[in-house]
Structure formats: C-alpha cells, structure tokens
Design goal:
binds zinc ion; 3 strands; alpha+beta; single chain; 14% helix; Ubiquitin-like (UB roll)
C-alpha cells in the first residue's frame, strides 16, 4: 500500500485528478440492495471513480456488518428491468 504524500493523487484508472467530495455506494447483499450515502471520498474529476480513506472504508464495512441492527435513514424502491422489455 502507498502512504499518503503531498503531491496530488491521480486516478488509478484514467489518471484524472482527484477532488474531495461526497458520494454513495450501493451493495447487493443477501438478495437486498443496501445504499450507503454521505460518504466522504476523493473523487476522480474525469471518470467519477471514488477513493475512500481507511476510516471511511472501515465505517462502510461496519454499516454492512451491522445493517440488521441499525435503523436505516429511509427505504427506497428500486426499478427492475429485463431484456424482454426492449424486444422489438
Ligand atoms: Zn478516473
């Protein structure tokens, strides 16, 4: 693993510049979609890839591990599609 340094971090995928921002992640666990939002990250200005600190990564792991005990912020419905919907 690389240690942090003073130079600007670049995206591993496209070498775009990373900027601090807030993002969300979606996970599919045990046949259920779980969304984590308000995640601070370094976000690539070119491709949108998000990079998380060790602390935020740990928080995400803990949310997923404790998701059945935690009260979610809210529930959202998720649209589901299939190729037959666009069959001519
Ligand atoms: Zn990128």
């Amino acid at each position: 693993m690389q240690s942090s340094n003073e130079t600007k971090d670049l995206c591993d995928f496209c070498s775009g510049e990373l900027h601090p921002g807030i993002t969300e992640l979606e996970f599919h666990v045990e046949s259920q979609w779980v969304i984590c939002e308000n995640l601070p990250a370094q976000i690539c200005g070119q491709c949108g890839e998000a990079y998380f600190s060790a602390q935020v990564s740990h928080q995400i792991d803990e949310i997923l591990a404790r998701r059945k005990q935690l009260q979610p912020l809210r529930y959202e419905t998720v649209p589901v599609f299939s190729p037959e919907l666009i069959a001519a």
